[in-house]
Amino acid sequence: MLAVKQAMDAQRVISESIQHYDTMRAHSFKYRRHNVVSARIRLGYRPASSMILAGLGLATVGFGARFVIRTIPALGKKMADTVYNAPKLDSKMFASSKYYKGGFEPKMTKREAALILNVSPNANQQKVRAAYKRMMLTNHPDRGGSPFISSKLSEAKDVLDKSETAASCTR
């Protein structure tokens, strides 16, 4: 019983000291909030919620570190397998590329013109002209483009335009 009474008296002294600092803070500007907090810490006032949060934070860090340590060996093995099984960069790989392989033909065909302008060989005149305009904006010689490429673009437009007009005349 005596121990309980002593513990209650000690708690009362702490709470009275805290109340003293709170009233001093309320009545005077020289005590700032950080002084009250530091006084509470010096008096042994530690809220349980901060201790719980600190424990949860440490547990989270521990479990995260455990996960990383366990997954690093498997990750290293997967990386080694990926590097070992990576595709080789050779001519066979580029043979199945979506880009046109080979130079220009001596006389431009409809297929080649469609490949140059990136349109369908059966595209209408509006699509051909829109594609030509878009390509010429970036490849015009006055804007730093190549004269050879711009001449090939013009030739491709002419070939597709002629084939379009020939098709429309026969209809």
Automatic annotation (TrEMBL):
CDD domains from the UniProt entry: DnaJ
The keyword Mitochondrion is assigned to this record: yes
Residues making up the signal peptide according to the UniProt record: none
Swiss-Prot/TrEMBL GO biological process terms: protein import into mitochondrial matrix
PROSITE patterns: DNAJ_2 (PS50076)
Keywords, sorted A to Z: Membrane, Mitochondrion, Mitochondrion inner membrane, Transmembrane, Transmembrane helix
Domain of life: Eukaryota
InterPro entries with a match to the protein in the record: DnaJ_domain, J_dom_sf
Gene3D superfamilies linked: DnaJ domain
GO cellular component: PAM complex, Tim23 associated import motor
UniProt membrane topology term: Single-pass membrane protein
Residue ranges of domain J in the record: 112-171
Subcellular location: Mitochondrion inner membrane
Residue ranges crossing the lipid bilayer per the database entry: 48-69
Gene Ontology MF term list: ATPase activator activity
Family stated for the protein in its record: Belongs to the TIM14 family.
Functional description taken from the UniProt entry: Probable component of the PAM complex, a complex required for the translocation of transit peptide-containing proteins from the inner membrane into the mitochondrial matrix in an ATP-dependent manner. May act as a co-chaperone that stimulate the ATP-dependent activity.
Name of protein: Mitochondrial import inner membrane translocase subunit TIM14
Organism name: Portunus trituberculatus (Swimming crab)
